[in-house]
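Task 17 of the worksheet. Students: predict the tertiary structure of the chain below and write it out as structure tokens. Keep your answer in the requested format; marks are given for formatting as well as content.
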Amino acid sequence: MTRPNASHEPLSVAALTVGIKETLESGFPDVWVAGEVSNFSRPSSGHCYFTLKDDAAQIRAVMWRGSAARLRFDLHDGLELVCHGSVDVYAPRGSYQLVVNEAQPRGVGALELQLQKLREKLAAEGLFDRARKRPLPAFPRRIAFVTSPTGAAIRDFLQVLSRRWRGVDVLVIPARVQGEGAAVEIAAGIRAANRLRPALDALVVGRGGGSLEDLWCFNEEAVVRAIAASEIPVISAVGHEIDVTLSDLVADVRALTPSEAAERVAPSGDEITQRLQTLSGRLHGAARRRVALGHERVARAARSRPFARPHAMLQDTARRLDDLDRAANRAVGRQVERGRARLGAIAGKLDSLSPLGVLHRGYSLTTDQQGKLVRSASEVSVGDRLTTRLARGEVVSIVDDVTDTA
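Model answer:
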């Protein structure tokens, strides 16, 4: 080792650190680093501190609060990350660290590509169409929840449901909701729920929040097709408000959390009670108004002439009947007179045409023994018996002579 001499003054620690800082920060201003998270902590400041390591080395890392707030997943020990940032030297400790401004779980790019392809395939089949969505029953009696029986999701769901509506039975169908084999168990649970008798009114499928990898089973085709084939209305309650799973898209109703699923699937007893009280008040008010209106109508009717002077109406009616009777008698009399006049005229015409009328004017009618009218002397012979009808009476004669002037 060479010792410093007068021409080579030793560097101070600060000067050396500054040189290292300038060298590292200018040499690694923009890097991508992959590794596993360990020693993770997040104090009340909101900054995230952790170590990024692999099999051969490790580096301390920090993500300031602003960058951490933009993450769409939760950091935790054991998570494989791909981080983007720059190298920073912390002079007071003489240590260097990676300042991370962007991070994503390792392999997320491939997962997202796989998710996009499956989404396009199922959308082309119409599994996400709004026309397929079914409404939830207003007052369900039997509900099933396909989830982990030991997870927070079912506890939150039951807590909110018991507070809102007690008239419902809940059946928990156990299934893993994370990791290998979870999708198979969830799909089997959905099919089992559809075989139950008596039939369920609604089916909830979900879990609490997590990273994209944690929630991946709700993006798998087996689960999506099982939800689509369900005869029971399905609520997807995957507790992740930012990302939307394929189960959310195919379900009849999406709830952001299991607690919201309880609010969506069952009515609020307090709200129904308040609603009933409001309707009861409106009903009583309407009944009172109808009664008051009826009283007013009865009072108005009592003051009217038929009720105030009932005999006056009868008397008016009697007078009108009398007037009508007299008018009818006069009309009948006029009709009779006109009839008599017409009969007299007709009788006069008949009388003028009657043979009897001719007799009154001095003529007579002569008939032979057979009653046949004699019009010519040639129609009788001497000795025939003839009857002559006069205006008054008849004359019977025997023919003793016939003179024919023809």
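Marker's comment: Residues 311 and 317 are 10 Å apart (CA to CA). Residues 110-269 form a domain with the Rossmann fold fold (CATH 3.40.50.261).
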